[in-house]
């Protein structure tokens, strides 16, 4: 290498290399923590004894844990687009829906093994994202968001009423005994179930210890393994030169253009990757319950993933997973709290006061759980623009500050005692 080349491209300084190594260690530690939490989720999400009144808040049953993982994958993919480039898509439900339809068709035509279905769902989600992104990314800002929303609604209406031979319309696509299933052969007697090389997705083992009961499901651990893979890939993307270019797109596209770089190939690549994540999530939804309906393409589903990402922390690694968990927890736990459960909780109060307390809490639970979620979302946006991850960082900073100040406070007290003596 010549002196001129070395001057133009200086070697990385020891400080930069040390910073990169430190960042790598933090990322590996974060991945390890997420892996441990995912493995122990059936225990950690069931903190209350089964017979206790607080068992209502346990979330360690397979169906809900699977949704935590699946929607975490969806939010991670959306964060690659929105968190890194700043492009806000309102059409990701389209990729979620086509992923589900692709997986169910694979179950009907080929095999009940989830691997081919998941692979096809991911590929079809990416192809749809390539087509939609190629058109939508000709615009930016609100115009891009409206274009993606329009495409998603077009897909919804096609699935609901136009392409009924493929989607089965409003009834939804589901399995039947007459499906050919080339590799498995036609079914007889009862509908087959999805499996992974012979292990059924619904297969589970329950362990009871004292008043606690924990269920370990094959389907959940399949979803958790794919969540960890998706999380690891997002880390690689965030720390790669490609990720830096996506941040440059979000920072200032005009400066990129002045340097001779076009932002569109990078944004299109991010859009396709994000669509593949959404297709994977749709395939997993169908793998857990072999049914695909047009409702998964509704605009509300697209809005939900936006809320997940912003609530957890857009542009952060862990934020989208946290946001997905919070929203799905409220949807499945708070929505089941009715007036009868509320009366049980406050039964010790006098009758008049009991009715008044239930009347005050009633709008925030049950069918009104959206109100509680909306208030939380407003508080996060106003006071924690960086989402729940920013809240955790602030809390950690306060704890570290107290730890640093504690020795000085003790030494000051010792000095005052010595002076008094």
From TrEMBL:
<feature type="transmembrane region" description="Helical">
    <location>
        <begin position="117"/>
        <end position="135"/>
    </location>
</feature>
<keyword id="KW-1133">Transmembrane helix</keyword>
<feature type="transmembrane region" description="Helical">
    <location>
        <begin position="305"/>
        <end position="330"/>
    </location>
</feature>
<feature type="region of interest" description="Disordered">
    <location>
        <begin position="1"/>
        <end position="21"/>
    </location>
</feature>
<protein>
    <submittedName>
        <fullName>Amino acid/amide ABC transporter membrane protein 2 (HAAT family)</fullName>
    </submittedName>
</protein>
<keyword id="KW-0472">Membrane</keyword>
<feature type="transmembrane region" description="Helical">
    <location>
        <begin position="68"/>
        <end position="88"/>
    </location>
</feature>
<feature type="transmembrane region" description="Helical">
    <location>
        <begin position="371"/>
        <end position="392"/>
    </location>
</feature>
<feature type="transmembrane region" description="Helical">
    <location>
        <begin position="142"/>
        <end position="163"/>
    </location>
</feature>
<feature type="transmembrane region" description="Helical">
    <location>
        <begin position="29"/>
        <end position="48"/>
    </location>
</feature>
<dbReference type="InterPro" id="IPR043428">
    <property type="entry name" value="LivM-like"/>
</dbReference>
<feature type="transmembrane region" description="Helical">
    <location>
        <begin position="265"/>
        <end position="285"/>
    </location>
</feature>
<dbReference type="Pfam" id="PF02653">
    <property type="entry name" value="BPD_transp_2"/>
</dbReference>
<dbReference type="InterPro" id="IPR001851">
    <property type="entry name" value="ABC_transp_permease"/>
</dbReference>
<keyword id="KW-0812">Transmembrane</keyword>
<keyword id="KW-1003">Cell membrane</keyword>
<dbReference type="GO" id="GO:0005886">
    <property type="term" value="C:plasma membrane"/>
</dbReference>
<dbReference type="GO" id="GO:0015658">
    <property type="term" value="F:branched-chain amino acid transmembrane transporter activity"/>
</dbReference>
<feature type="transmembrane region" description="Helical">
    <location>
        <begin position="218"/>
        <end position="238"/>
    </location>
</feature>
<feature type="compositionally biased region" description="Polar residues">
    <location>
        <begin position="1"/>
        <end position="10"/>
    </location>
</feature>
């Amino acid at each position: 290498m010549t002196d001129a080349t070395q001057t133009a491209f200086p070697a990385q300084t020891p400080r930069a290399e040390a910073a990169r190594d430190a960042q790598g260690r933090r990322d590996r530690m974060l991945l390890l923590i997420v892996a441990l939490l995912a493995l122990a989720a059936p225990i950690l999400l069931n903190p209350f004894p089964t017979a206790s009144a607080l068992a209502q808040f346990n979330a360690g049953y397979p169906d809900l844990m699977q949704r935590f993982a699946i929607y975490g994958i969806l939010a991670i993919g959306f964060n690659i687009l929105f968190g890194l480039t700043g492009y806000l898509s309102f059409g990701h439900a389209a990729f979620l829906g086509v992923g589900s339809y692709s997986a169910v068709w694979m179950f009907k035509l080929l095999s009940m093994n989830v691997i081919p279905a998941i692979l096809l769902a991911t590929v079809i989600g990416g192809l749809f994202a390539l087509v939609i992104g190629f058109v939508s990314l000709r615009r930016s800002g609100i115009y891009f968001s409206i274009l993606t929303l329009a495409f998603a609604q077009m897909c919804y209406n096609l699935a609901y009423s136009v392409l009924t031979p493929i989607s089965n319309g409003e009834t939804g696509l589901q399995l039947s005994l007459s499906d050919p299933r080339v590799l498995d052969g036609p079914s007889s007697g009862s509908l087959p179930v999805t499996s992974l090389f012979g292990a059924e997705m619904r297969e589970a083992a329950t362990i009871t210890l004292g008043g606690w009961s924990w269920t370990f499901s094959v389907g959940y651990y399949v979803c958790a393994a794919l969540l960890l893979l998706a999380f690891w890939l997002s880390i690689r993307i965030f720390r790669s030169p490609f990720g830096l270019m996506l941040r440059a797109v979000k920072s200032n596209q005009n400066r990129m253009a002045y340097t001779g770089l076009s932002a569109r190939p990078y944004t299109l690549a991010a859009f396709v990757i994000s669509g593949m994540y959404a297709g994977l999530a749709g395939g997993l939804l169908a793998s857990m319950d072999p049914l695909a309906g047009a409702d998964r393409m509704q605009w509300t589903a697209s809005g939900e993933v936006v809320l997940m990402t912003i609530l957890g922390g857009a542009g952060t690694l862990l934020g989208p997973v946290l946001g997905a968990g919070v929203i799905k927890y409220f949807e499945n736990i708070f929505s089941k709290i009715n007036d009868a459960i509320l009366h049980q909780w406050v039964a010790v109060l006098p009758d008049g006061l009991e009715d008044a307390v239930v009347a005050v809490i009633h709008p925030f639970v049950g069918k009104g759980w959206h109100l509680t979620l909306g208030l939380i979302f407003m508080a996060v946006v106003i006071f924690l623009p960086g989402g729940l991850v920013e809240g955790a960082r602030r809390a950690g900073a306060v704890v570290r500050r107290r730890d640093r100040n504690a020795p000085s406070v003790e030494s000051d007290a010792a000095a005052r005692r010595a002076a008094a003596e």
